[in-house]
Write a structure and sequence with these properties.
With 94 residues, the protein is an alpha+beta fold. Helices cover 29% and strands 34% of the residues. A hairpin with a 6-residue loop joins strand 1 and strand 2.
């Protein structure tokens, strides 16, 4: 399965944050927080993704890979950090 997320600049304009996603913040935190923290691979840039989009590719309870739009490729570490930070949130809104 693929779960998509849309990233954007944070309020200060310095970093990236998750703005929207196909998973609720609660589901992201409960199911994917630990696999995201343990993910050591590199995110792959894919041309089929829209502007500022990321995908989590999963198989059952395992995180297979992370894909991102080509515009985020230069900021791959920052984008992964934003996804991990979203999984740490406790509030219900992006």
């Amino acid at each position: 399965m693929a779960f998509r997320f849309r990233l954007g600049r944070d309020r200060s304009g310095d970093g990236l944050v998750v703005r929207a996603g196909e998973l609720s913040p609660r589901a992201l935190r409960q199911k994917w927080r630990e696999p995201l923290a343990a993910f050591k691979g590199q995110a792959a840039a894919k041309p089929h993704l829209g502007l500022h989009e990321m995908e989590l590719i999963t198989a059952r309870d395992r995180l297979e890979s992370v894909r991102m739009a080509q515009d985020l490729a230069a900021h791959a570490d920052e984008a992964l950090a934003a996804l991990r930070a979203a999984a740490e949130r406790t509030d219900g809104a992006w």
